[in-house]
Structure prediction request, 79 residues.
Amino acid sequence: MRTTVEITDAQHRALSAVAQQRGLRGFSALVQEAVDAYLQDLRADEVDLLLGLEGMLDDQEEKEVRSRIAATRQAWRAS
Prediction:
């Protein structure tokens, strides 16, 4: 699955260097490794709790949360 992830220029340079050292064309495999390691470090009950939250918001609450997230992202990129 494709997604967009915001990273710093320094992170991009570092990931590109590691990927090149490993003979990789890009650094998607490195990001996948990092996500796998992160998820592995979570406790099983944390993952179950988070997955159990799916569908907990009604349509209006979802719109409000998405709006707040969008506003936060805009402010974050501006700083």
Observations:
- The chain has one domain: 9-78.
- The two ends are 29 Å apart (CA to CA).
- The CA atoms of residues 36 and 42 lie 10 Å apart.
